[in-house]
Amino acid sequence: MDRRAHEIDHRIVGDDMQCVEITLDPQETVIAEAGSLMMMDDGVQMQTIFGDGNGQEQSFMGKLWGAGKRVLTGESLFMTAYTNQSTGRRTAWFAAPYPGKILPMDLRDHGQRLICQKDSFLCAAKGVSVGIEFQRKLGTGLFGGEGFIMQKLEGDGQVYIHAGGTVVERQLAPGEVLKVDTGCLVAMTYGIDYDIQFVGGIKNTLFGGEGLFFVTLRGPGHVWLQSLPFSRLADTIVAAAPRAGGRRREEGSILGGLGGLLDGDN
């Protein structure tokens, strides 16, 4: 069965700070979030597109609905399409925004639909629709924290998502339950039932350090998890930043503030 999406080739480069090289045949297109481009060959043309990026003919209201769903996930109304307008093969490169891994996935291997964390999508073949996964459960909608708004990737093309830190995959059997920190969930297949649950117990709430909620996943299906959510990385950077007045935090130094005096910081 022929694909409706463009058939793009790729090469993952790097280890902890990865980028992906997308090779485009003439007139092939890759779509990406704004700001993810690293470089591109001469002959590749950029175009801003309005909507969910699937490249199918739509009415204005259809495009507006697709764009509106993206806004709900915290993304821009627009996406960027990169099309090879030359007569030979050309490349476009896209970079991960923080340390982790880029995961190439063929949607045909996952029922032509994946649910992923709202900030994990990097790029995809033209023909893939990038929208929002509506969750009808009240608990998920109100209390999901960083994990309650999920993106839905639909189509029969290649997609590339980014996971922070190390990637762990789990195959859940029918009825098997996995409880995950909301930020550590990267992606899952469509058949998985998920909801947000409150972490009970006053000690857990006040002193647990893992947030007030976690996501409960019930199989069957496949799950991709990340060891370093961006929110956790950002919190660590903020905690290590210099305090007001330009004084830095001493990291385990036995000299403490005296170390700052010796190296001229105070």
In short:
The protein is α+β, with helices and mostly antiparallel strands and 266 residues long. The protein has helices spanning 60-72, 138-143, 202-207, 230-240, 257-262; strands at 9-13, 19-24, 29-32, 37-40, 44-50, 78-84, 90-95, 100-106, 113-117, 121-125, 129-133, 150-154, 158-164, 167-172, 177-181, 185-189, 193-198, 213-218, 221-226. Residues 138-147 have low confidence and may be disordered.
Query: Averaging pLDDT over every residue, what do you get?
Result: 79
Major sheet summary line = 6 strands, antiparallel
Helical content stands at 10-25%
Give the distance, in angstroms, between the N- and C-terminal Cα atoms.
69 Å
Which structural class is indicated by helix and strand composition?
A: alpha+beta
Radius of gyration from the CA trace? 21 Å
Summary keywords:
globular, single chain, alpha+beta, six-stranded antiparallel beta sheet, 266 residues, 5 helices
Structure notes:
- The structure is a single chain.
- The protein is of the alpha+beta class.
- Helix content is 16%, strand content 40%.
- The chain is built from five helices and 19 strands.
- It has helices spanning 60-72, 138-143, 202-207, 230-240, 257-262, and strands at 9-13, 19-24, 29-32, 37-40, 44-50, 78-84, 90-95, 100-106, 113-117, 121-125, 129-133, 150-154, 158-164, 167-172, 177-181, 185-189, 193-198, 213-218, 221-226.
- The chain has a six-stranded antiparallel sheet with strand order 5-6-3-10-13-8. A six-stranded antiparallel sheet has the order 11-12-9-16-19-14. A four-stranded antiparallel sheet has the order 1-2-7-4, with no helix packed on it.
- Strand 1 and strand 2 (19-24) form a beta hairpin.
- The protein is globular and about 60 Å long.
- The termini are far apart.
- Residues 138-147 have low confidence and may be disordered.
